[in-house]
Amino acid sequence: MNEQEYLDKRVTAQINWYDKKSASNKKWFMRLKIAEIILALLIPFLAALITTEIETLRVAVGLIGVIIVATASIITLYKLQENWIEYRTVAESLKHEKFLYITKSGPYKDGSSFPVFVERFESYISKENTQWASYIKPKQNDRTSG
Q1: HSE-up of 83 (CA within 13 Å, CB side)?
Q2: Nearest to 32 by CA among 83, 68, 62
Q3: pTM for the full predicted model
Q4: What is the DSSP string of 24-86?
Q5: What is the CB-side half-sphere exposure of residue 66 using CA atoms within 13 A?
């Protein structure tokens, strides 16, 4: 793979992937968090309206509480906030590395810097993949040991 192919196919694809994953995780985190906040605000309001004539509000308040716990659990389970921040960090690091390379600055001042760029670029991706694998492996061991 030559330099231009690498930039066009690998670099651009990876930056786009991390950008999209970051945006998706942020979008879902914000939506679920806003829903959680609004529902939590409804509980005291609806609880104050509960009377013997409006018994169904007790069920509604209980159901809202269950939905809040489920929403918070989904946010935690999928690590939406952590992933959003991690993917954004990797995307910005990859963009930074690309711009250093394109402008031939930093570690790319010499003329034969393409191999150095590839090594550094791939190390960012490898580091993130290693962190992901180390997070997943203990979770898989927990499932198989029980």
Answers
A1: 23
A2: 68
A3: 0.83
A4: HHHHHHHHHHHHHHHHHHHHHHHHHH--SS-THHHHHHHHHHHHHHHHHHHHHHTTHHHHHHH
A5: 6
Cα dihedral 87, 88, 94, 100, rounded to 10, equals -170
pLDDT digits (tens, 9 = 90+) for 121-137: 999 999 888 877 776 66
Cβ proximity of 32 and 75 under 8 Å: yes
Asked if 136 and 83 touch (Cβ cutoff 8 Å), the reply is no
Which residue in the block uniquely carries the two structure tokens 């918070």? 72
Calpha distance 61→46 (Å, rounded): 7
The answer to whether the beta carbons of residues 84 and 25 sit under 8 Å apart is yes
pLDDT tens digits, 15-36 = 999 999 999 999 999 999 999 9
Domain range summary for the chain, segments of one domain joined by +: 3-145
Cα 56 to the chain's mean position, in Å?
A: 38
